[in-house]
Amino acid sequence: MVSINSNYKGGPADVAYTISTPTCTSADKIDPGIPTVILLHPIYIAKYIFQTQFCDPKLRRFNLIGVDTRLHGDTEGKVKDIWRGEDAALDVIAFMDALQLPPCHFFALSMGTRIALQVGISYPERVLSLFLVSPIPAEEPAGVSEGRQEIYDCWCLGWSDPEHPDIEAIEDAIRGANELGFNSRGGPLVEAIINATKPKSVRNYGPGRLEEGQIATVDFFTEKMDYSTEKLGRIQCSVKLIHCSEDIAYPLHHTEELLQRLVDAGVDVELEVVSDAPHFGTVTNAIEINSLLHDFLMKQTTSDVPLPLEEVTSPYQSMLIAEGWSPDHENEDSDEDDLVFYTTSFVS
Question: CA 11 to CA 305: how far, in whole Å?
Fold first, then answer.
């Protein structure tokens, strides 16, 4: 944990993070001789969603930092009133300052892309590159906003009586989130990630903190972002956009619109489409996305990086194994009917 106090709306926070270097799974600090990549997670699921990135030997040629945003994972910190991309970006910069990090590359998924893009706009000197998977559009489509609200409403209904939680309503919320992120795909890794998330969600925006859940999981996305030519023109680094072809929330035209805005602003940007990938494609289609990320990072890197080791271990492996996952099943998939949601209780 590292303590920050970056934003008057949220106040102080104790930020949970992991650092992995080429030779150390859980390091106290980065290797200053090689570039650093900060990984920003999506909605609901915290840094351990990047299990498949942290255990990739090619990506571990770099320093990798996973960080939990407010109301996610193990970070302790409140959100108040309006919580915007600019506020989350302030937290990221405060985190970088606390760890005395140099300018970093950013790998972001879904919600994390809004934060990373804002860091690139507001603090361009701190960003070496942006690799954005399933980027959030400037304006949330009405249907997606309604879906997020429905997930939240089911969650609140489930906790209307904390002494007697409505498990069916809570499971409806979880199924809705799984549909948004994974198109209801299963598999041992997805199931373990979901099971690990449940008790953390109860602590972060369960009974007594439901209002914060509305702010962080719904209102954050309904804010219309200013992606004007003037704003996007502040970005000084290369940008790679990744569209996941089976993304049910944001069809390709949303990413193409962002691409055009960046082009018009003079940003060095390119777009790649990953086939048969849901919104959270970094989990289900990790081999292809990791390869694209590695090649992109190498193009942005002028210094030498170490050769990849034969095998590396993720700092999240033991936690996910405890939730029923096995590294031998990393690439397995299953149908919606095979999903198992009851292997972990809702309280830690």
Answer: 38
Can you give the pTM of this predicted structure?
0.94
* Residues contacting 339, CB < 8 A, separation 6+: 178, 184, 186, 190, 191
Which long-range CB contacts under 8 A does 2-8 form with residues at least 24 apart? 2/95, 2/98, 2/99, 3/98, 4/91, 4/94, 4/95, 4/97, 4/98, 5/94, 6/90, 6/91, 6/93, 6/94, 6/95, 7/87, 7/90, 7/91, 7/94
Exposure of 210 by Cβ count < 10 A (0-12 exposed, 13-18 middle, 19+ buried)?
A: middle
What does the alpha-carbon distance between residue 281 and residue 245 come to, in Å, rounded to a whole number?
9
Surface-to-core class of residue 302, CB atoms within 10 Å of its CB (0-12 exposed, 13-18 middle, 19+ buried): exposed
- Across the range 275-298, mean pLDDT stands at 98
**Alpha helices for 68-166 (secondary structure H):** 85-98, 111-122, 142-158
Strand bridging mode 17-20 / 63-67: antiparallel
Rounded to the nearest angstrom, the gap between the alpha carbon of residue 347 and the centroid of all alpha carbons in its chain is 23
CATH number of 2-139+225-335: 3.40.50.1820
204-to-39, 74, 83, 99, 197 alpha-carbon distances in Å: 20, 9, 15, 24, 10
The model's pLDDT over 54-111, given as tens digits with 9 standing for 90+, comes to 999 999 999 999 999 999 999 999 988 888 999 999 999 999 999 999 999 999 999 9
Of 105, 63, 65, 61, the closest CA to residue 306 belongs to 61
- Give the tokens for residue 3: 């303590």
In 265-325 the beta strands, taken as DSSP E runs, fall at: 269-274
The CA distance from 345 to 201, in Å, is 12
How do the domains of the chain map onto residue ranges? 2-139+225-335
